Amino acid sequence: MTLPPTTFDLAPALVVLPxxxxxxxxxxxxxxxxxPDARDLFEQWPVLVAHAAMTARRLAVAVPARSNRVFDALExxxxxxxxxxxxxxxxGLAQAMGLAEPRGxxxxxxxxxxxxxxxxxELAAEPQPSREEALAVAETLARGGWPWGSAVLxxxxxxxxxxxxxxxxxDVWARLPEWEGEAAPGEAGSKPVAPEAAAARLSExxxxxxxxxxxxxxxxxxxxxxxxxxxxxxxxxxxMMLAEAGTGIGKTLAYLAPASLWAEANGPSVWISTYTxxxxxxxxxxxxxxxxxxxxxAKKAVVRKGRENYxxxxxxxxxxxxxxxGGGDLVGMALASRWARASRDGDMTGGDFPAWLPTxxxxxxxxxxxxxxxxxxxxxxxxxxxxxxxxxxxEKAIRGSRRADIVIANHALVLTQAAFDGARAARGxxxxxxxxxxxxxxxxxxxxxxxxxxxxxAAALSGAEAAELRRWIRGPExxxxxxxxxxxxxxxxxxxxxEAKEALIAxxxxxxxxxxEGWSGRIAPPNGEVNPLGAVEHFLxxxxxxxxxxxxxxxxxxxxxxxxxLDLVRETAxxxxxxxxxxxxxxxxxxxxxxxxxxxxxxTLTTADRARxxxxxxxxxxxxxxxxxxxxxMLRAIDEDAEDDxxxxxxxxxxxxxxxxxxxxxxxxxxxxxxxxxxAVIAPAHGVLVTSATxxxxxxxxxxALAEMRTGAARLPDRPKTLKLASPFDYxxxxxxxxxxxxxxxxxxxxxxxxxxxxxxxxxxxxxxFTAIRRLKAVHEKIAAPLADKGIALYAQxxxxxxxxxxxxxxxxxxxxxxxxxxxxxxxxxxxRSLRLLVFDRVPWPRPDILHKxxxxxxxxxxxxxxxxxxxxxxxxxxxxRRADDKGCFVMLDAxxxxxxxxxxxxxxxxxxxxxxxxxEGVAGFLGx
Length: 929
Fold this sequence. Notes:
The protein is an alpha/beta fold. The protein is 45% helix and 13% strand. It contains 34 helices and 23 strands. The strands form five sheets. Strands 8-9-7-10-15-6-16 form a seven-stranded parallel beta sheet, with helices on both faces. A seven-stranded parallel beta sheet has the order 19-20-18-21-22-17-23, sandwiched between helices. Strands 11-14-13-12 form a four-stranded antiparallel beta sheet. The two termini are 39 Å apart.
């Protein structure tokens, strides 16, 4: 369809690439600009940009506040195409609109104007969800001073408009569909999946995906994975399988084949758990082959996350009301309302919400239309007492997951949910209504299961955590803060239950001992004059004293063993434990009273009141029966100067930001978190499939021995079934691997020069991974301008903004380069030429902190260090070759790298130890530059 042209006169389009390298385009065409001229244009004249904040940072000027002078094309995109993806750059917008990638600043400036014209024309032709609703929001935006207001209104009024809205249009909660109640689905069955049926289902899925036939290894995977979907024979002994499938096998469809068959035959549901949000999205996309009909897929394949990921409509309503009265970002809230209306599931963290939207202009954090302000992070939900309960995104996700065939979740949710249910079961309580007993689980990215369990089954008493608990009990205490304390959430349903009210009031008073507003500045003020309030703040001050006495600070913080403790630490730990006990006792009493209400008034309680009480009990259980006892246990061990428990590690740490302490904590972790993992998740299940491209360790006599230990399989009576399938890619012809022998890894200038020349040799498409933020920033400072001179844009984590947006830009711009910390490797899924070179600044050894030292002692000393580093290198290498036509080079700038660390790379990869010049020539020659 040819879209009608817009008559709106666009401001000159300014594009500033890293370096900075700038260009401007108006109706007469493009021209390059010097940085000072670009700075003047940006600060003084009407201008069209893509990501105003990123543009400002590249020009070394302050991020602008909203004005009628700066037109950000990303805001226009968010209005016209809410819930649709774009990388937040001019090139990303062009590709989202179906244009070819514009190369260079001048071409991108021209494309930016074209993009905006196309968006306005599309809005004029087909506004979503209706012309009338879009017009109502646009009029609110225009009244709020949005620079795009007149252009958007003109586009919308270019065709006849029906009955006008009587509201601002921001009240999306009134137009969202409600969830419908259904009978419980009942217990899942135990019918097996035949291997040949799994193979046949895989063929069906491939045909629906437009593929001719399964690769032999993919078919083998599907048939053997049926093992995990057979009935278990004894309680506590699941059908467990460990499957390593090299990159390119197609393991997602291979396990979806038996999983979908099992769910169809037995009832809901198979849970597929991932470590990263990117893989959750990928699995949801691949489920289209299983359920081609979108309406069927919406019911059969559900993405499930924790409630802290979803838009809270009550929070949103309060924020919208505040913004309309001048107490918030009206433009941001209006654009967020457009997204909420179009969103598939209301997921603000990794779903279809544009993470860049709150970051485009200078808006105070408390006023932004951001997840931090709009999700239920603090457990303040009032459940059925909320006027939006029937349209709640969280409730829809929970109910959907109970009846779906396939639930696509994440390790954090699965494990914290299991820990909660395990604690309830130990007390004889029924399972939580928000959780589901998991019978069949697929853990994709299974190499991260150990780390996920480590986080889920740990305890931390920190200033931030304790302050959150105070807020959860007492509600917001600062001026202008939104939120609801326990009294506001519960007093109405307590009615005439005086004992429950007394317990609630006692807990509210006792919570005053927890850190209050401004606690960080009191325990670690810049001038050193501490002024702690309450027992917990006094304890944290003492913890900092011990840290300063015994630990050497690093760029991110410091840590030391908790015992033997200073006398001051022991004294304050005793007082803090007593203060926490005074909070715990009334909270437990309140929980018991609420349980009694549910029992005694079962015949008369309304559905809404029952849901509110059950929701409150869920929060009370987590805090009064799990968190507070764990904190008191740690404090008691410190007070008594007890012997170290061999199963746990206790330590103190402090977090730094900009060179100063921002928090202190007392932490407790399992040395081996697979013990609670097995007890809470693995053993109760009927079938568990743990899969990854990097599970096995080829240096071990039994390649799966370490994987069995790190997944909990070693704790089961029988060994798991194992499967190892090599990647089908021709690595000998598709990849090169170099260790550079003449670069000093501790000299930032040498590392920067090496990375610069390697990126140039590849013609861009390079990812540089660092093990320290300080070194990353130093290298970025030295090479951004030289690369820009050659037409290569360099983006950097901790410099250019939110990492997810940077990865999206890196994927969209084929010749861009990106610097990130080692953790970025898990979030990078960039097939094709956009990632053709991967450079490590040094071996990614595990950080030798207190916890790792305890695990190294338990799990094999130096060999354990090797295994962790070898796995990280293999995982990073796996990012490089994603398709049969990819080519890529892997470079390690650490001459001391042991050859044994590269034994986890795929067969066919030859390790070459060369000088930098040879590596540069090898990269240029292999990649054809």
